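Input record (Table S2, row 348):
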Amino acid sequence: MTKEEFQNLAKREIEEAKKEVSQVVDESSLNAFKGKYLGKKSHLTSYYALMKEVAPAEKKEFGMELNALRSALSELLSAKQKELADKALAEKLEKEKVDITRPGYHATLGSKHPFYAVIDDVTDFFLGLGYTVADGPEVETDENNFELMNIPKDHPARDMQDSFSLGDNLVLRSHTSAVQARVMKAAKGVGPIKVICPGKVYRRDNDATHSPEFGQIEGLVISEDATFSNLLETLTLLLRHLFGEKREVRFRPSFFPFTEPSVEADISCFECNGKGCALCKHTGWIEILGSGMVHPNVLRLNGFDDKKYRGYAFGIGIDRVAMLKYGIDDIKRLYTDDVAFVEQFRKE
Ligand code: PHE
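Output record (phenylalanine complex):
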């Protein structure tokens, strides 16, 4: 082959490649182009094989022509490569574009439900006095809920707490006092015990201040030197912590089968300030908690020596406290999934 003949071939090859490269739109057509013009089976490779037949004197020049062809083809390839890469980048940037003029989202803060705010507040208070937190199930045995709390089967005091029976000697616990039995039995007659237990309880009761489902926080202290005045002092501190100095607190003698003596603590009604209204059933007072010295029978029934140990216990209504603290007039508000209701209590 003469030099001119080869130059013509090369020219045609380049023209064809130019035409073809313009059709390349993606990686696979680019690879096909690369294989066809620069790969093992390309014309270019076969031209290199022709070198053997070229006369020695012409080898150098022929080689230069070949190299020129190869770089022309490689340039077409790399120009296309760059073009495709630029296009891909531009597309990516376009897709990821952030409109900085768009108004932002306003993330709203959640808020604690008043029921849990009270639990946390009361728990904090008692942790500060060295109490620990105990737990028990809402489905409870008749034994823990009643019998071990000194309320035998046919005792009229069972009527005080109209419970939901689940059969098989199981009830939805009617008070967190059931946890007292669990805690005492677990301690196997060895004090001291100093616990609180917040939780849900259930009774067949339904009006503006009673819901069939409500919350209590139980407290139980058992030691060799627990006294009635320790109890009154503890509860006075608690009620002042919860309601400040404004509300009046009164203790009144009461009856619970599991405590002797027993007292109830009332707080002056927040609606009428003690004058009497529907909320406080025209008494001016709202009952907040029941308490007393642990009955010797309860100590004995749960494995404690009533000659050695004394104890006091109390049960606070979580809902009552929440209603008083947050001015909620219907207990049912605490048990609806009304976001607007909870949002009222959001601290900005
Ligand atoms: N368990 C009583 C109730 O639910 C409250 C209470 C607890 C009273 C502990 C005395 C001692 O009414």
